[in-house]
């Protein structure tokens, strides 16, 4: 750096460090200005460097994230491929086991048929009289059961008499026409619950519920619905299943 001319002739001629106060202050001012310039330049470079480092950090983070996602995606693809292979192997194993079971079931069914045929042949060969006696006994028991069921049904019909009434003239309650009665209570006509008064409807349906319970119990017939007799407040509900008599969620 070239030193500026000083107003002091001694300092200028000697070309040495300033001696007088004016030259010293002048030199210090020059150094101060130069240091400020360097400081400003340093701060500018620092700020640029910081921006570059921040941008580089973000770029590195994005690159690392992409690399991590690629690795994760590759791992998931590998896992999916492995699971597909296991699924194919499992299906093949299940198919093989199903075929084996089908063959075994076929063999068992054939063996059961052969055993049943042999059993019938042996019984017919060695116990013909026993088979005839058991058949006759079965027929007698069936006949007696049917007779008892007939007697019980007749008694039930006497307890709950039913008849058809033709009412040509309009009754006092405003209902007329042909009706079915049970225990002198009119049943609704078809599927119309309003064809008879509500009190008579409740009573007749209650009688029908009790009649159905007795008939089903004595005939050992299956019923799709369960019912509870309670007079005019009888209930009918659908079974939850054939083995479970509890009502379903819908009444």
From TrEMBL:
InterPro entries: UV_resistance/autophagy_Atg14
Sorted UniProt keywords: Coiled coil
Residue ranges the record marks as coiled coil: none
Keyword Coiled coil among UniProt keywords: yes
Source organism of this protein record: Rhizophora mucronata (Asiatic mangrove)
GO BP term, pick one: SNARE complex assembly
GO cellular component, one term: lytic vacuole
A GO molecular-function annotation: SNARE binding
Keyword Coiled coil found: yes
Protein name: Uncharacterized protein LOC105634369 isoform X2
Top-level division of the source organism's lineage: Eukaryota
